[in-house]
Amino acid sequence: MSSEFFNGIPRRTLYIIGGAVAAILIGILVFTTVRANRKAQALENQIEQQLLDMAQADLEREYQDLNDEFAQFENSRKFITDDSVKRELNDKYEAARIQVEKLQQELKNQKSKSAAEIAKLRSEIDTLRALLRHYVEEIDRLNKENQQLRDENQQVKNENRRLSSQVTETTRRNEALSERMTLAERLNVTGLNLTPLNKKGKTEKKVTKAVQLMATFTIPQNNSTPVGEKTIYMRIISPSGQLLGGAGTFDFEGGNVEYTARKIIEYAGEEIGGITIYWDVNAPLIAGDYTVELFADNFRLTSKHFNLK
Questions:
Q1: 237 conformational bin, left if phi > 0, alpha if psi -120 to 50, beta if neither
Q2: Are the CB atoms for 268 and 228 separated by under 8 Å?
Q3: Are the CB atoms for 256 and 249 separated by under 8 Å?
Q4: Strand ranges inside the chain, DSSP E
Q5: Is CATH 3.30.1490.480 the right assignment for the domain spanning 190-308?
Q6: What are the structural domain ranges in the chain?
Q7: Fewer CB within 10 Å, N or C, the chain?
Q8: More confident residue, 29 or 79
Q9: What is the pLDDT of residues 188-226, one digit of tens each?
């Protein structure tokens, strides 16, 4: 058989059939490989998107945690007295929060996400976290400053109360000292007596027969009393409570007081003894307790009771 034939079939035909079979096999292999690669790529893309979705979900949880944490510190803002600090903190945080929410919404609207977009969202959330940390630190600093100010204010209040107490005590002492000094200037009176007199100027045993009542007394030496002319006013109160006489009035503690009789003396700081003030009886007298009061320089010098028979 000729070499151009193999088992009765031309070799050329066999070559053509073999080439066709090889081509078919190669095509099948290429198709299968491409298809497998596409499936692998699709699976890889699916896995990558799932990972990106998981990363986005994690970031959203982080963002929500940050927002919850920020809300916990809203009550602390009342301790911040500086309005400019409040505005600066809130404005920065609000701007960052809005940017995060914008990126979140954009990612939710996209079917596929990129690692760059997720990285951008993470960067914005990290910025938000840093602002919150600064916010907390600022609140802590301001709270410490406010506490220090409150402590200092309390110390000032305590010191003011102590000083006020000292001033009150000093004022009280000064008033008491002033009162004692004023009282020290008052004329002193000793040896006051009230004696009924008859027509001859002698002592009358029965007051009902007296024509005059005589008060006698002594003014001792007092270096604290201003010297000069002194008017001494005498009041005699009868047993029935009536003022005897009624010669006029004098000023005393802002009011006008009636008196029975008066006497003007010149006081030079030395003792004056045997001072007498007379009152002429002009109404019937009765036996009983009589009260004699002496006044001068707006002071009540003395008051004494006498039982006249």
A1: beta
A2: no
A3: yes
A4: 5-6, 9-10, 190-197, 212-219, 228-237, 248-252, 255-259, 261-267, 272-280, 288-296, 299-308
A5: no
A6: 12-143, 190-308
A7: N
A8: 29
A9: 889 999 999 998 889 998 999 999 999 999 989 887 778
